[in-house]
Design brief:
mainly alpha
Length: 387
């Protein structure tokens, strides 16, 4: 039981990753030059571009924290099976997974639809001030929203990655597919020999087919073997290795999402990263999570109450924050910008947006996400659990 309870620290990692996505989208909306490196669209005389080309940009990563989510999912979804070696764990997880994801996703899309019909999104006029027309200005502008909503609720989002109602929803089809990818691997290798070599072959297949998301799930499964080998590793040596992996993982996580790494630390090693551009974030995410698996000190730090709280609201925060930014944040900009200037308005809006998103995410986690988890368990226990 002590070994099982250790996973509390994973919630802390998940919470930080969700906060990173929140910061990424805020900067992409208000200071998009940090991503595009276009000086003509800068609001800070190029300072956001300097930040975006530095290693500190890992604090507001986009694809990197998503890769962390995928690695964590591969680890968490397989961990209980590795501890028990019971196929019941696989069956239970597989039956419950869709409902667990679908309930908060469907709620988010319905809220976005209602906001569209009520005219509560102001991203189109605000994007011309923000210089984010190329991305943010195109959201919530599609025709026939009711028909699109029904399509998304039926299969468009969970199976095809349609993110029309929320920019973050492109990951849901990957998360669902990756989850069953994990369950299938566990079921097919149950009580068989050479599990680790088969996992290595699976990873090589992902590399050959350029399937980075599934490779992240494979990385997550492999962490169980690391955890099994932990007792044979001296604590001091494990701590040193963990610190090294953490630093390397964070540096790799700062690789620009745009893929243009000229003028960054990676530009000095272009002969390496030109060929491996698409694998940098996945590798960094694996090393980051691996560092926490290896280090009890890191686990204790990331298990602090504040981080665990972020972990509790992480899924809700991940889903809700684009809706808040497209409505409240943009509305405030349109009314504040003429009076106080852009940067003062953006700072105040960031504080208000954060102050709204945190409690709203807690409410969604408590009254939507938690009931969704309970519903998934009820459906499994009532209809599908082995007699």
């Amino acid at each position: 039981m002590q070994k099982t309870n250790k996973v509390a620290y994973l919630d802390g990692i998940r919470g930080i990753a969700a906060l990173s996505v929140f910061l990424h989208h805020y900067l992409l909306v208000f200071y998009s030059a940090f991503y595009t490196a276009d000086l003509a669209t800068s609001h800070l005389h190029g300072l956001e571009i300097t930040y975006g080309r530095s290693v500190f940009s890992v604090l507001s990563g986009g694809y990197f924290p998503v890769c962390v989510f995928f690695v964590l999912s591969g680890y968490v979804l397989s961990r209980k099976y590795f501890l028990t070696n019971q196929t019941e764990v696989i069956v239970s997880g597989a039956y419950r997974r869709f409902i667990r994801l679908y309930v908060p996703v469907a709620f988010t899309m319905i809220v976005a639809f209602i906001m569209m019909k009520a005219g509560l999104f102001f991203n189109v006029p605000a994007s011309s001030i923000q210089h984010s027309e190329w991305w943010f200005g195109n959201m919530w502008t599609f025709p026939h929203p009711l028909l699109r909503l029904l399509t998304c609720l039926k299969n468009g989002t969970m199976f095809e990655g349609d993110n029309a109602f929320d920019t973050t929803l492109w990951t849901m089809s990957i998360e669902l597919t990756g989850s069953f990818f994990v369950f299938a691997y566990l079921a097919l290798t149950h009580n068989t020999r050479n599990k680790l070599p088969s996992l290595l072959l699976l990873f090589l297949y992902c590399v050959v087919t350029y399937n980075r998301p599934m490779a992240a799930f494979v990385f997550g499964i492999s962490l169980n073997y690391v955890e099994e080998a932990m007792p044979s590793l001296a604590p001091r040596r494990a701590g040193i290795i963990a610190a090294l992996f953490l630093i390397i993982g964070l540096i790799l996580g700062s690789f620009p999402d745009s893929g243009d790494f000229s003028g960054t630390l990676f530009g000095h090693m272009s002969w390496i990263f030109t060929k491996a551009t698409h694998w940098v974030h996945v590798s960094g995410a694996y090393l980051l999570v691996l560092a926490f698996v290896l280090s009890p000190r890191l686990q204790r730090f990331i298990s602090l109450r504040a981080f665990r709280f972020l972990g509790y609201i992480s899924f809700a925060l991940y889903l809700l924050h684009p809706l808040v930014m497209g409505s409240l944040s943009c509305y405030m900009l349109l009314h504040m910008y003429p009076g106080v200037g852009y940067n003062y308005a953006a700072l105040y809006i960031f504080l208000v947006t954060t102050a709204v998103c945190i409690p709203a995410s807690w409410l969604m986690a408590k009254y939507i996400d938690d009931p969704g988890i309970k519903l998934s368990k009820y459906v499994y226990n009532r209809w599908f659990k082995k007699a």
